[in-house]
Amino acid sequence: MNSFRQIVVAAVVLFCAAFSARAQLVMHVDATAQTLWFTGSDSGTTPPVGPPSAWVGWQVGSFSGSYNSVSLSLFSFSNAQPTSFDIGVDSSSFYVRFTYTDRSAAATIDGVGSGTTYNYSSWSAGEIATLEGLSSLSSTDSMSGWKSMTVSVTGAAVPEPSTYALLMGVSALAGVIFLRRRRAAV
Question: In terms of domains, do 113 and 176 share one?
């Protein structure tokens, strides 16, 4: 009976911890449909300094190319309202950013879900491979309270030709081992 009580207490503590933790912003990538969308939530403060506008962003790698402007309709906002949302991608880095004109303002970003998506099928093969290979993005403004973003990739990825060659090599090796053992047993 005592262990049952401990299990119930542990379950209640985990349940409370799960609901008291702040949700995280999640970027969902459907590799089959080549679309992405956002769920979850994140909040923080817009940077106090910077270029003419303050950027709140998440990245992997060191992006220095041009950005694709994406509709703000993928999100809903509380408090400070961004003026734009951009995605920058190349063959080795990925960057998403919101542009704010308000400085040092509290802001909350909520993903609206799969009802509103962005289609990335026009990207190059290298850019698509970068996106579909992500698992998380680090906040560029963690000092302002923004958390890292989780990336969830679904859909069938097409294996590289080298993967097929590896599978054929392993199959051939397994076949040789099987035949040798069979001959040795005779």
Answer: no
